[in-house]
Amino acid sequence: MTVNSLIESDRAHWIHPVSSWHDHEQRGVTVLRSGKGVYLTDIEGNELLDGFAGLWCVNVGYGHDSIVEAAAEQMRRLAYATGYFSFGSEPAILLAQKLADRAPGDLKHVYFGLGGSDAVDSAIRLIRYYYNITGRPAKKHMIALERGYHGSSSTGAGLTGLPAFHLHFDAPAPMQHHIAPPYPYRSDAASDVELIARSVADLRAKVEELGAENVAAFFAEPVIGSGGVIVPPKGWLSAMQATCRELDILFVVDEVITGFGRTGPLFACEHEGVTPDFMTVAKGLTAGYAPMGAMFMSDRIYRAIADRSAGQPIGHGQTYSGHPVSAAVALEVLRLYEEGGLLANSQAVGAYFGERLKTLLDHPLVGDVRSLGLLAGVELVTSKTAKTRPDAALNLPGHLARIGYDNKVIFRAFGDGIVGFAPPLCITRDETDLLIERFRASLDELLTIKEIRDAV
Ligand code: PMP
């Protein structure tokens, strides 16, 4: 097929995720063809530095033969085994064991799904189940952060705190609530301590308003991802955990982006010794080589449900829960993080990446840079002193991403003038330099657009 016929077929038939269908039709698809390490090659032969690891998922980089072999070997031996009716497969069992060994606290039980949305959806369903079966059926309200992202299932999208996921979707659902995020750059709090105290007070106030006896859980990402890569001050996550414990509500940490070395340690919870009641992961679990997500549940909650379930099947499951090929992929990916040195590289290069990003602060368009490990956000402003958000009509991040593509670097454009970076964890210092260099050149080029230059 020619490039043009691919573009035509795509326009005619493929409904793309999270996009304006109208704008996509106008713009046409960009077809990617191959990848190696941190580089992608598109159908026209352009080699691009992927500063976003696909969709913050290809943590090990592209083209790992050992993962291909693990998947092929498992497909040859046994392409599918159900987890229903007490069946299972070796890779899924080994993976559950490995994950439980490495997860924080007593998160000893793992439910496998297909990605992040159904990991969150599983947590929501099982939290309801837990409170109903343990005799506290009133505990149903769930609280999350504005700008948080918890997937696009019909329940998870309500917890997501982004307007596009609610508009015309009748979301959030009743009993889903949001509080303000900890947003250092946009907060007038005098210190990190004050910012954390405000978050705690907001959660407390929301729980009081609803009545603690009616509140089931609080959901949070350790670093707000899709809402603009907002890094809370150190101590925020543990303060929220302590508040949940005190108020007797479950603490759910969504590590779909931050899990598997993205911020340095295997899980971002480890930065502060946080031990949630539920934890959700996906993306880096299989590094995008196969679809898989997982929900971890504490031993305490698992036992409370298991001990009451004699003779009663718990009606939650998917055909592909614990898919053996995805599990075999995940086992090899985990080996690459630990024995293959990728976690160590993420820690070493993550610090360097953070330093290099800070050098962008002298640029007239850059108001803020924030990062944790290899996860970063850059917030563009049209006045640095007034921290003025660029007019949405200027579509600064969109223009920047397009210019970036022409300069052979990929990063992610968000709303509110924010762009995000999440390169594969195998990125070297030289590749980091190249990423920053190409990004800076793209920023400079952005200023050659008249309306943008006039707005600054
Ligand atoms: N939670 C978080 C924190 C996420 O970032 C995402 C995806 N970006 C999800 C849940 C949903 O994951 P998926 O897209 O795999 O359904």
UniProtKB/TrEMBL annotation:
One of its GO terms (molecular function) is pyridoxal phosphate binding. Its cofactor is pyridoxal 5'-phosphate. GO terms for cellular component: cytosol. Keywords: Aminotransferase, Pyridoxal phosphate, Transferase. It comes from the Bacteria. SUPFAM superfamilies: PLP-dependent transferases. The keyword Transferase applies. Pfam families: Aminotran_3. Belongs to the class-III pyridoxal-phosphate-dependent aminotransferase family. This is Aminotransferase class III-fold pyridoxal phosphate-dependent enzyme. It comes from Novosphingobium flavum.
